[in-house]
Amino acid sequence: MHASASAYTQFWNDYPAAVLGADGNSAVPSLVGEYAAQSAHETTQARQQARIRAERIGNNDEMNVDYDDVNMIVLDGIVMGPVHCAHLGCTKDVRNARGGAFCYDHERAFKDWCHIRDCPNDNITGTLACQRHQSAWRKHKLEHSQSSYAGMRRLLQRPEENLPWQPRTERSNQPHDNDDDDEPPPRSHYFNSSRFYCVETICAPCGVVIAWTKFDKSESPTKILNFLKSVYPTQDSRPNYICIDKACKVLRTSIANRSWDTWQQTSCFIVDSYHYINHHTTDYLCRKWCNPASLDGSAPNLVKVAKNKEGNDYLQRAFNTQACSS
Predict the structure, then answer these.
(1) Taking the complete model, does pTM exceed 0.90, yes or no?
(2) Burial 22-33 (b: 16+ CB within 10 A, else e)
(3) Which residues share a beta bridge with 317?
């Protein structure tokens, strides 16, 4: 992919300092708050530097802007929940996927034990709980009966309808967008199998899956950074841009645990265009470092000038940031 120097000179002179929205046309709201003035000043400086670079390139007709060596990956967690062993800390495959709770080893260990966590008593024949915990077992059976599932389907279809005869089930929000690495508290019982929170995928902008793994309990920034490190162990193998919906949180965690000392030498964390428009307008760090299509000249590799059917120039993102969801 090449673009002439004269086109980029005109680009930096003619287009305003804005950012592209998720549809490629709508503008993202500007930064507000205590850092707004500082951001405006830095944007002006960046645009001036970009114009100087464009003018230098423009003085040499043989120079082109080349994007062939610039690459990007897109990360996303697909919440699909494959099952694994219910025992605390074990993520092995379930021996019996149709109703089983444990892997082969823990199924043998808990064969005759009560399935309430840390209970040393034997279970009652035909149940998975001891005499003391029969009420918990009956509640679990009721919540996982066919009538309960039918009620949940109706609740999803008619959320405003109150069905007092349907059993009340406890539901907790998944920690998909937690600001930290906190995970939900451990389960109180082993009556059924546990589930991985999501399948984390790394895709090329064209949609080809490069790597994937399973995250248990949550999609935390620390797990994302560890996954990236395992897939890209050396600096030579790392992409220029890493696109993820929570890039600003990953960046903050990387700075805190000092892994940014090495990542910043090769890569930038940016937010995908769909989620960026909903990020806080007061988040200075996100707006400065995670902008997926900044037009201040600081990241010219992310935006290019294309022509529409009428032959007029318009701004276009150079990469597809929605590869994992397309």
Answers:
(1) no
(2) beeeeebeebee
(3) 303
**Cα–Cα distances in Å, from 139 out to 91, 167, 169, 191?**
26, 9, 9, 11
Convert the pLDDT of each residue in 214-230 to its tens digit: 999 889 999 999 999 99
3-class secondary structure, 12: helix
Residues 6+ apart with CB under 8 A from 38: 284
pLDDT at 307 (0 to 100): 81
Helices 221-231 and 247-256 cross at an angle (nearest 10°) of 80
Higher pLDDT, 104 or 170: 104
Say how far apart CA 67 and CA 56 lie, in whole Å: 18
Q: Residue 89 corresponds to which amino acid?
A: G
Write the DSSP assignment of 227-292 as a string of letters. HHHHH--SGGG--SEEE-TTHHHHHHHHHHTTTHHHHTTT-EEE--HHHHTTS-TT-HHHHHH--T
Which helix (DSSP H) or strand (DSSP E) does residue 215 occupy? strand 209-216
